[in-house]
Amino acid sequence: xxxxxxxxxxxxxxxxxxxIHLRDRVCRVCGGIxxxxxxxxxxxxxxxxxxxxxxxxxxxxxxxxxxxDSVSAFKSWLEKTFGVDQIFALHRKSNDLVKLDRSFYEENxxxxxxxxxxxxxxENT
Length: 125
Description:
Layout: H1 5-24, E1 36-40, E2 56-60, H2 61-69, H3 71-82, H4 84-94, H5 102-123
Helix pairs in contact: 1-5, 2-3, 3-4
């Protein structure tokens, strides 16, 4: 049975979240380990970067609220942490148009599964 596009979208969300957790492990702002969750740098409805690992950062609850409540301060932190060029390139890429079809989701799933495997292999060495 074929998975629906909605099902593929949910799978991408789950894999993206899993990868961000594996990659970052702790809140990127304070190093905290409690109550962390991935945060999209560019909003989720920017489909061209929705599942892009470069569009995610792991934050604790406090800093996730800060990212949403203090957008300007969070943007400054992002630029200082990742570099203005990388953040600018991500925002530019976020404006690309993509077709939300089966191949879009399947490509993202394959990429995320590959990155998760690489991250797990890295941890086991």
